[in-house]
Amino acid sequence: MTSPAVDPASEVQTSASGAPHAPAPRPPRRISGGVWVALGIVYVVWGSTYLGIRIVVETMPPFLSAGARFVTAGLILAALIAWRQGPRALKVTRRELASAVVVGLLLILGGNGLVVLAETTVPSGLAALLIAVVPAWVVVLRAAYGERPGAGAVTGVLLGLVGLAVLTLPGLSGDVRISGVLLVIVATVMWSVGSFSSARIPMPANPFTASAYEMVAGGLGGLALGLVRGEQQGLDLAAVSTRSWTALAYLIVFGSLIAFTAYAWLLQSAPLSLVATYAYVNPVVAVLLGALVLDEALTWPIALGGAVVVAGVCLIVTTERRS
To answer: What angle do CA 103, 107, 109 make, to 5 degrees?
Structure first.
């Protein structure tokens, strides 16, 4: 998910003579109750998806379950778009479709799929803290493409990397396989590349349409990879626990549909600086839920590393909203 970029040229007004002058001050935007409700949904639901994933993979194969989740959610979203806006709302060009497929594979298959695989060995709270470093990778990618991040953003990236080091040092984060931790780190890089690319390639103009194609493409990729890995062998649907089925349904309806709709609405209805706070609230929610529901250990290195990562992300978000 990416935030829309603001064209600096759109912030310049011109006088009758054609000379530019400073824009008139805008009155502060009032935050409505609906904004706080939608923001609360994004905070809690997206923060809880890590817990949901952890419960799903208790008795379901990772890529097949993730693939089924996103194909189902994508088809439901496409049906809702066709119902509310008409079938023409789903029409896209070949280039737009290709772009949505690429972004979907990066975000859904790479970013989310690897996290699902990792959570077979990594606690949900730790996974969420590792993923919180995504804004730092985006700053690095922007710098690689010639943009000059401010001192605050650079400091935030360095803080994020320090926190990441604390979270990934062998032995510090408890009895966690380093392979699972590395999978999450690769997932954050792929999610960052997908988010960064989506703002620079021809995507469908309707964000809901784009998301529907991304989810279906990424979900199909997950199903294909699951079959290649042989996850279907020995799979007995009757042996899947009720709580795994419930968690999968929760991820489809709440994680992929309701929360995304709330997020897309917030991008149009609330200050971007407020919406962006989900990046450092979600990990905190995930850690608390993991400890409360699954009794996941909250060791001091996880608490310290997580606090450093969240502080770095908070600094990046604060710096970006001032620029």
So the answer is: 105
Helices (H), the chain: 33-56, 62-85, 94-104, 113-118, 124-131, 134-144, 151-168, 178-198, 207-228, 242-250, 259-269, 272-275, 278-293, 300-322
Q: Are 232 and 94 in contact (CB under 8 A)?
A: no
Strand partners, 255: none
Burial letters for 61-89: b for 16+ Cβ neighbours within 10 Å, e otherwise? bbbbbbbbbbbbbbebbbeebeeeeeeeb
φ, ψ dihedrals at 5, nearest 5°: -80, 145
**Token pair 């952890």 in the structure block, residue:** 54
CB 123 within 8 A of CB 294: yes
Q: For the segment 40-75, what is each residue's pLDDT rounded down to a tens digit?
A: 998 899 999 999 999 999 999 999 999 999 999 999
Residue by residue, DSSP assigns 195-226 as HHHHTTS---SSHHHHHHHHHHHHHHHHHHHH
pLDDT per residue over 231-285, tens digit each?
A: 999 889 989 999 999 999 999 999 989 988 888 788 767 776 677 778 778 888 9
Give residues with Cβ within 8 angstroms of 84, minimum separation 6. Answer: none
**Cβ-proximal residues to 24 (8 Å cutoff; 6+ apart), any chain:** 13
- CB distance 149 to 318 below 8 Å: no
pLDDT at 16 over 70: no
Q: Give percent of the chain above pLDDT 70.
A: 85
Structure tokens at 52: 């949901």
Q: Examine the pLDDT at 175 and tell me if it is beyond 80.
A: no
Structure tokens at 108: 């859904």
Q: What is the residue whose two structure tokens read 């007995």?
A: 236
